[in-house]
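Hi there, hope your week has been kind to you so far. No rush at all, and the record is pasted right below.
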Amino acid sequence: MNFQKVISVLLLSSIVVAACGCSDSGTPTEASSSPAAAQSEAPEEPLAAVDEKEDWPKKITIVQMPNEANPDAGQKQEGFRKAASDYIGVEVEEQEGTEYAVGIEAMKSGKLDVLLVSPMSYYQAKKVANAEPLVKATTFSATPYKTVFITRADRSDINSLEDLQGKTFAFVDPASSSGYLYPKAKLIAELGLETEQLENPGYFFQTVAYSGKHDSSAMGVVLGDYDAAAVALSVLGPMTDAELFQEEDIKIIGETDVIPDPCYVIRSDLPQTLKDKIKEFYLQYDSSEYFEIFYSSPDARFVEAKDADYEIVAEMVELLKIEE
């Protein structure tokens, strides 16, 4: 019975009690004119408790990007999905997305509820779909998530970002935060370059390439394919550990600020009680195997994400003149 029906029943009961009373024999008697008498004959009954889940959807949908480096990741996501469903108390469907823009539009239209986004996509999800930050994963690693500009250690002619003028340079991919957006913003802000001109041959760099992967950019520098490149700092350690090159083979000539971690965002129009329950699940989830698979660290965990974590993204969007 919903709240309005409960109120209607109580009002109707009050009217009936006011209209007639009952004798010890059960025979109707004249109604008492005393309100106290009416109350004594018809004691109040407590209102029925309202189920906090009655306005929850029957299913929530979580979308994240595929993990190409891990063919077994799908099985681990199934374990995560089941744990989420059991904890939250509604069916959870987990899907893999292909493009952030598609996921953001789906969230805008109410077709998905939770979406994993990059820092840049967070800004777009907030603007386009009115999404709210939910959680982000942190590995508690000593290596910060930032981009470094590297060149060969024996390049005596390249020791600063200014020295990159007239050189061949590699970004990773125009959609990459650490491999393109942040290093590009760094170059524009520090060297006073034109956003629209930066990648044109002969403007600042001799040529610009897009390697497709951070490790490809690093190896391209080591092998002499590029004079310099922008890569995530976190890829260098594993590459030297794998003996793909020696630490002393390269040198760092510049770096970006720390980049916000990718995060999960949630639809703002979901019931607050459901949003709280979903966040609660993420924050208590502690499967070491899951975090080893998806975040390369069994000690990684989800922590709360806040809008303030991504303020720098809005500044970068304006600097790079990226349209919403």
Summary: The CA atoms of residues 58 and 228 lie 52 Å apart. The radius of gyration is 30 Å. DSSP finds eleven helices and 13 strands in the chain.
